[in-house]
Design goal:
Elements: H1 3-13, H2 19-33, H3 37-64, H4 85-92, H5 95-98, E1 101-105, H6 121-127, H7 132-135, E2 140-144
Antiparallel strand pairs: 1-2
Helix pairs in contact: 2-3
Length: 150
């Protein structure tokens, strides 16, 4: 009896139907290379995890509305000379996570008050031009965070 016929309803019920996409290829490889059962199962499950991760990434990218053509590699840093390119590229590597460091972004936001509401003092302050000392601050700072031992 064909393995697809017997496995399909069980895999569907377990929400693992994606395994059927690579099952025959992996079965052929396992028979040819004489894999152990555990190795065969490991490859099948790895394929399913990879398929789900790819599907989730695709779904998140579609939901985000981000243009996939606009990446850090295609960004024109010369458009805004105030943006420090080496700093942005360093932050993109996320090395501060591996080093267990914090990363603080100091931003000045402009919030325009809505016409139908009165502006709060914070909103009015945000509309003022930045002070000289605020402009000279670094865009980010990192500090080591001591690890807590429980």
């Amino acid at each position: 009896m064909d393995a697809h016929v017997t496995l399909k309803p069980k895999l569907t019920r377990l929400k693992l139907s994606g395994i059927l996409e690579t099952f025959q290829t992996r079965l052929d490889q396992a028979q040819q290379d004489k894999w152990a059962y555990s190795q065969f199962l490991d490859f099948l499950l790895s394929d399913e995890v990879e398929r789900r991760d790819h599907k989730q990434l695709t779904r998140r990218l579609a939901k985000s509305g981000l243009d996939p053509e606009k990446t850090l590699e295609t960004f024109t840093f010369s458009f805004n000379p105030k943006i420090h390119e080496p700093t942005i590229r360093e932050l993109a590597t996320c090395q501060f996570l591996a080093k267990r460091e914090n990363c603080f972004f100091l931003l000045r936001l402009s919030i325009a008050p809505r016409a139908d509401k009165r502006a709060s003092p914070a909103q009015l302050t945000a509309l003022l031009p930045p002070k000289k000392e605020e402009i000279e601050r670094p865009i980010y700072t990192t500090t080591s965070v001591p690890r807590r031992h429980n």
